[in-house]
Design brief:
48% of the residues lie in helices and 6% in strands. It is mainly alpha-helical. Helix 1 (3-12) crosses helix 2 (14-28) and helix 5 runs antiparallel to helix 6 (102-112). The two termini are 26 Å apart. 28% of the residues are buried. The structure holds zinc ion. The site of zinc ion has 8 residues, from helix 3.
Length: 133
């Protein structure tokens, strides 16, 4: 597929764009859960949608199904503090992510998990915001 086709497709089909956006979220952390470091299989709303949380990059983090399901509709930072795998560096990373400072968030995650392969170029080229319909 040519680059031009992709752009055209994105304009034509918001769902395609949404999928790309979800992929980019996972790529930020090297497809690992921001809370526990296991493979991320879902996107978690840090501030739950039921509490007015938006589907923006700042409010959406990669999470494994276990964390996402367990957290449910709770505020992520409060929930995270009670977990066995709580790591203050990850908590700081989540906070940085919420503030839109993905570069800092990724550095903190690398600090928490030096073996984690994360993308270095994504946050420079990717869109920082995407609002889901
Ligand atoms: Zn997890």
């Amino acid at each position: 597929m040519h680059i031009n086709d992709a752009v055209f497709l994105e304009d034509l089909c918001p769902k395609f764009r949404f999928r790309q956006w979800r992929k980019s979220i996972h790529r930020f952390t090297g497809k690992s859960c921001i809370y526990c470091g296991k493979p991320s299989e879902s996107i978690d709303h840090v501030l739950p949608r039921s509490q007015g949380g938006l589907s923006t990059t700042e409010n959406c983090v990669p999470a494994c199904l276990s964390c996402n399901g367990d957290k449910s509709d709770e505020n992520a930072l409060y929930w995270y503090r009670r977990q066995k795998f709580y790591d203050p560096r990850r908590a700081m990373a989540i906070r940085a992510w919420l503030e839109g400072d993905l570069r800092l968030a990724i550095r903190l995650l690398q600090w928490a998990n030096p073996n984690c392969e994360v993308s270095h170029k994504n946050y420079e080229t990717g869109e920082s915001k995407y609002e889901a319909a």
